[in-house]
Write a structure and sequence with these properties.
The chain is α/β, with parallel strands linked by helices. The protein folds into 2 domains: 2-16 and 228-413, UDP-n-acetylglucosamine1-carboxyvinyl-transferase, Chain (Alpha-beta prism), CATH 3.65.10; 20-225, Alpha-beta prism (UDP-n-acetylglucosamine1-carboxyvinyl-transferase, Chain), CATH 3.65.10.10. Helix content is 32%, strand content 26%. The protein has 14 helices and 24 strands. It has helices spanning 20-29, 46-58, 83-88, 95-103, 122-130, 161-172, 187-198, 230-243, 258-266, 305-311, 331-338, 368-380, 391-394, 400-406; strands spanning 2-5, 10-15, 36-40, 61-65, 68-72, 80-81, 105-109, 134-138, 141-145, 153-155, 176-181, 202-204, 210-215, 223-225, 245-250, 270-273, 277-282, 292-293, 318-322, 342-346, 349-353, 362-364, 384-388, 410-413. It has a 4-stranded mixed β-sheet with strand order 22-23-1-24. A 4-stranded mixed β-sheet has the order 2-15-17-16. A 4-stranded mixed β-sheet has the order 4-5-3-14. A hairpin with a 2-residue loop joins strand 4 and strand 5. Helix 1 (20-29) packs parallel to helix 7 and helix 10 (305-311) runs parallel beside helix 12 (368-380). The longest helix has 14 residues, at 230-243. It binds uridine-diphosphate-N-acetylglucosamine. Residues 21, 24, 91, 119-124, 158, 160-163, 184, 188, 302-303, 325-326 line the site of uridine-diphosphate-N-acetylglucosamine (UD1).
Length: 416
Amino acid sequence: MIAVEGGHGLRGELTVQGAKNSVLPILAAAILCRDVSVIENCPRLEDVDASAAILRHLGCRVRWVGEDLEVDSSGLSRWDIPDGLMRRMRSSVIFLGAILARCGRAALSYPGGCELGPRPIDLHLTALRTLGAHIEERGGQLRCRGERLRGTEIVLSLPSVGATENAMLAACGADGVTVISNAAREPEIMDLQAFLRKMGASVRGAGTSTVIVEGGRPLHGCRHRCIGDRIAAATYLSAVAATGGEITLRGVDYRYLSTVTTALSQAGCRISSDEQHIRLRSTGRLRGVCPIRTSPHPGFPTDAQAVFMAALLRSQGTTVFVENIFQNRYRHVAELQRMGANIRLEGRVAVVCGVERLCGATVRCTDLRGGAALVLAGLQADGVTQVEEIHHIKRGYSDLTGDLARLGAKIQEIEA
Ligand code: UD1
């Protein structure tokens, strides 16, 4: 459980952790070669532990060397992932394309039920089938064969991040050229491309909606430093915006955060950024902003919706949120209401009317970012807030409590 006493301003500097959403596909990509790869700046997260458990099950050697994670995939000997490991992390499906490219076959189960609403994998499967994989779906199990994948054109019906990554990984093992159209443009896809290139793959176009992979090249291990986590950065910026104070963030590219920083400026924060840092100053008295519509990159990230909403709970005026990516991404709202937040919810729309005060309460994390939003609400509430079920937060933040404490928050983690 996290206990947080509200009402204290935050001040200081932080270096942002490595990006969860970069490191997970990169760890899957590490099995494309039979060699040692080192991921520098790898965040210590539950989801990284889950990926490491999958890699070890497959026969890889995985070990931490300081802040770096070393993966030796030379001994990979299996192509299956058991149900228990698949369910530990929703993005485990990202291993499908990589196992198929390395082994020519794969057997795994569906990544399990979902916290953000249904999370289908039809686009992943269609992409792999287009490359020539034969996939049987039976009783929640997927059996895939694809000894001879062939480069081709894959048109995604929507720019899914995971499907783009799975297609890129499988295409590295296919003969010939694959063109992925309507690809997701997230910075983490550019980071995956950077890693694959260091391994010797021919991949270009990441960051645009067309990614081109020339498959069949021999790949080798490499060292790669993954990019900073823009969602963790958005979380800390939102925290300081809400409490008032000043923060300097390092280790994250400000260009990947422009929709979030624009919204924070509109809310009344003063922000400056350059290649080295992002600095935010806030009086803690924010105003409502123009509607926030989540959309694929470079739009407002769905992953930042909950923490930005938390920042506006005591703002002057009203802000409308429209969640366009996931169907069930407002589960934190009921918990925030327990703390006195005024939020009306209708389908994909949430209307936040700022209130004068929030009151500390016992609340429960419903998902990763929603959990962080509860902590942010606690930072501004009267009295003490107890946030339960914090394993959700640990999936994606290496040390949320410690980072906020270093900024001056009265916050601690208490063993249940
Ligand atoms: C990734 C991120 C997650 C982020 C999300 C959207 C990782 C590890 N996770 O998740 O943090 O919230 O992008 O930015 O990088 N869809 C389908 N069929 C599919 C695949 C997706 O209909 O086969 C739909 C999803 O239900 C959702 C939308 O497409 O509505 C976007 O999902 P997607 O971009 O695939 O998200 P993830 O890769 O799961």
